[in-house]
Structure formats: C-alpha cells, structure tokens
Amino acid sequence: MVMGTCVASFAAQAAEPVKIGMITTLSTGAGYLGDDMRKGFELAISEHDGKLGGSDIDLIVEDDGLKPESARQIATRMIESEHVDLMTGIIFSNVAMAVVPKVVRDGMIYISTNAGPSVLAGAKCDANYFNAAYQNDNIHEAMGQYVQDQGFKKVYLLAPNYPAGKDALSGFKRFYKGEIADEVYTKLGQTDYAAEIASLRAAKPDAVFFFYPGGMGINFIKQYAQAGLKDEIPLFGPAFSADEHLVDAVGEAAVGMKNTSHWSPDMDNAASKKFVAGYVAKYGAKPSLYSVQGYDAANLIGSAIAAVGGDMSKKDDFRAALKKADFASVRGNFKFGNNNHPIQDFYVREVVADPDGGFTNKLVGKVFSDHVDAYASECKM
C-alpha cells in the first residue's frame, strides 16, 4: 500500500506542467507586437497538443504596458508567487534592461523573443540569458551594408531615444561608410514627425534610414509620403519598420521600401512553410517577424524541456540543451554563439502588394551569412 502511494505521488510530481512566465507588450500603439509574439509562441504549443518537449505547459502572460517599472513588478510576482520555471516575451529593450539583468543574476533562465540590447550580448552576458531573436544591432548592420553596396553617399538617420534605437543606428553606421547627414533621436512613442521631416528635407540626403517599430513606424511612413518625399528620397529600414501589420496599415506608401531581416514570409524551407500555413489557419492573418520569434523560441524551449525529461530542476542540463539549439528554425540556419546570441543569416526584403490583398514582403537577396554580433568578443563566458 505504501509503495503504491509512493508511485502515485511520483507520477503526480512527474506530471507537473512547466511554468513559463511571459511578460510582453499587449497594450499601447505597440501592443500588436507582443500579441503577434504570443500568438507565435502559442501556435508552437498548440501544434504539440498543449505541450512542449513532451511536457504540459502553463503559460502565464501579462502586459507590461511598455513600462519598465510595471515589468519589474510583474517579474517579481511571477517568480515569488507563480514560481515560474523560466521567463520570456519582452519586446522593448528599455523594459528588458529593467528586468533581465536582475532575474538572471538571481538564477532565473530567460529566453528573449525580441529585445537584444548590446550590453546583454557583451560585458553583461550571462549563462542564464539566451536570445532567440537577434542582437539589436544585427538587422541594422545588414541594412548599413546594403545601403553601402548600393552606392548611397549621404544618409539621414532617425530612431527613438531608447537602447534599441541607439543600437540600431550604431549597427547601421558600423557597416555604412558614407556621409551621415544627421543622426536624430526622437521620443519613444512619438506620433508627429513634421519637424523631423522638415529638417530631413532641408538636409538633402540621398537616402533615409529609420527605425520606428509599431505605431511609430506607421505614423512616420505615412507622414513621409504625405510630405511628398517617398519618390524623392528612398526609405530604408529594418524589418521592425516594415512588419506585416505595419505595411498593411500604411498601404501604398510603403510599397518599394527595402528592409532587412533574418526571415521573410516567402522563405523556401519546410519549417517556414509549415509555420506560415499553420499561423494563417489558426489566426486568419499573416505572421510577422515577432510571430516567428515567438514560434522559434517556443520550439527552442521545447527541445530543452525534452532533453531534461521535463525536470526543470536540472538547470545545467537545461542550459546545455538550449545552447545546442536542436530544433528546426523557420529561419533555416540558426545556432548560438559564445554569448548565447544567434549566429544566423540576414536578408533584404522589399514591400510589395500581396496578390491576396494587402501588402507583404518578398526576399530580394542575402546580405550576411552566419553573422556574429559585434559584442560577442566582450562576453567572457
């Protein structure tokens, strides 16, 4: 009788779900970014009948409202009250910097689905921190190289004044060697760019590179076109300024805009085709880059859960399994560098009209193969 009780007790313990705390941005003008990421993550779970790596998943999702202090409070509650096994989901780098350094220092494993601030890739890298998306500079570095290769001599730069905005322009300048007409940082969440567009026009650049995700990008591109500059000075940006929602919201004004990314909806690999079809079937919408990163992060986590048999007390083994990145990424080539950030390929895309209605991105070419971020050498792991 006693033995039977012990076996039943062990079985109950073995069936404990893996608790994942997801803090992300679901409100404000940038709320669709976190929503897309969450949908991609949940798609991966649904494809495995509510499991990842053979274990049931308890996904606890909360909105940070793009407020670092709120995110800090949520993280504390998730760890102390919900007893989550790992954390993920933050979209914006200022929010990530308010949460990630402390939680990983305290022993929590964190897998980023978007934000990749430079300091966390370099001097403050940590064995408990993995980025399943990119390092902030990477996509902008690819555009810097592309604009350089296209022969543009004088480029005007704009980005929001927060860590990812500064990383963006640093990344672009690392590979673009021409003249910088001006480097302008605007308020995070700004909606009116009339003054910046007037200054830009006066500077007479032959190209503009901008980084404005979410609602910021929608407003900037629309106002740029309304000012009559779309056909005068070409716009270049990262995928975050040309995601599937954004280009549909902007419409014709976005057509022809080049942007760099580590994925495109027309990627020719089996994992990506399965993902796109599954996402459209489940949500009735096209997936964005944020959806991709949520999906890949979930499958990465699943590979590590499977490696430890669902026993999240095996932290060393779980980290080692994450490092192997033994999953089929929709991006194709994907592996982690010494600093737990991806080594991956980067491409140029062009915004085009979608034959099925709306607008989308198509691949134009590859810029980098197996690209390593600029801060890996500063990481002492």
Automatic annotation (TrEMBL):
Residues 17-353 form the Leucine-binding protein domain. It comes from the Bacteria. Belongs to the leucine-binding protein family. The keyword Cell inner membrane does not apply. The keyword Signal applies. SUPFAM superfamilies: Periplasmic binding protein-like I (SSF53822). This is ABC transporter substrate-binding protein. Keywords: Amino-acid transport, Signal, Transport.
